[in-house]
């Protein structure tokens, strides 16, 4: 049996470490940088909130495998939008970080943490959860019931002029 638990602020650094591993696996290269400090600060702050909008579920790493660490995590955010006919609460979830340390892959930890996160969303009245799947993870998400629902479009506005 896999034991998952809700992450607390003390897990922020390890969640960021796993996030970095996720990006390295997705992009084929490691990308350390100042983003890690800011991600840890935000995770610590949001995981400590009395009414959190950041949900994170983890599996602890095995003792004897080095310093205390996490084996896996699933992290998502509760978003509140205007209600709509199919979404009367206006609550949506977005999963943006599912990662398993290489030492623990193939044991069902990604599934277990993602299922715990989906339960957390359901308890909060979320009616739809979105995510972006890598080709390697698509089968897992489809087995949990995820399916295409629309064409996602994105725009990087970081270089867009600010103001009117």
TrEMBL record:
Residues 2-164 form the N-acetyltransferase domain. InterPro entries: Acyl_CoA_acyltransferase (IPR016181), GNAT_dom (IPR000182). This is GNAT family N-acetyltransferase. It comes from Streptomyces luteosporeus.
């Amino acid at each position: 049996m896999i034991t998952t638990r809700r992450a607390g602020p003390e897990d922020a650094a390890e969640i960021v470490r796993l996030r970095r591993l996720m990006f390295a696996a997705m992009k084929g290269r490691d990308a350390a940088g100042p983003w890690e400090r800011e991600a840890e600060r935000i995770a610590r702050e949001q995981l400590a909130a009395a009414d959190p909008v950041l949900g994170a579920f983890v599996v602890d790493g095995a003792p004897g495998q080095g310093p205390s660490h996490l084996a896996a995590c699933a992290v998502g955010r509760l978003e509140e939008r205007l209600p709509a006919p199919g979404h009367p609460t206006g609550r949506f979830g977005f999963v943006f970080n599912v990662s398993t340390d290489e030492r623990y892959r193939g044991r069902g930890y990604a599934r277990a943490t993602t299922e715990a996160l989906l339960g957390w969303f359901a308890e909060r009245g979320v009616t739809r959860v979105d995510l972006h799947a890598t080709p390697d993870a698509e089968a897992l998400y489809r087995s949990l019931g995820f399916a295409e629902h629309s064409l996602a479009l994105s725009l990087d506005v970081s270089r867009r002029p600010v103001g009117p």
